[in-house]
User: Fold this.
Amino acid sequence: MKEIEKFEIGDVLDAKIDNIGQFGVFVFIDKIPGLVHISEVASHFVKDLNSLYKVGETIKVQVIDIDYEKEQLILSVRSLVEEPKSLGQRRYYYTKKNSKASFAPFEKLLPIWLKNKGN
Assistant:
């Protein structure tokens, strides 16, 4: 049995930060490398991971995937933190809610379309 096979998706573990890159935090858990991608760090935008973490720090992570080929764990911090509640009702709409639009144009055009269909 390989060392990586003892881990399961969903496991919550302590990981020691080995390196911090632009796109993620590289960690080790029992000599097994892992990556916390920048998108899995927080539910909000993170510009600089160095502002949140330091090399040598121990953080709690959750296993979200296992790469058996590379023998690497794919990890998340975000999955352990409660997502922020909505800031309220949306202010912007994809449609014009006060528009007087209806199917009237289709009602007027349908007879013309049916008439031209025969041509």
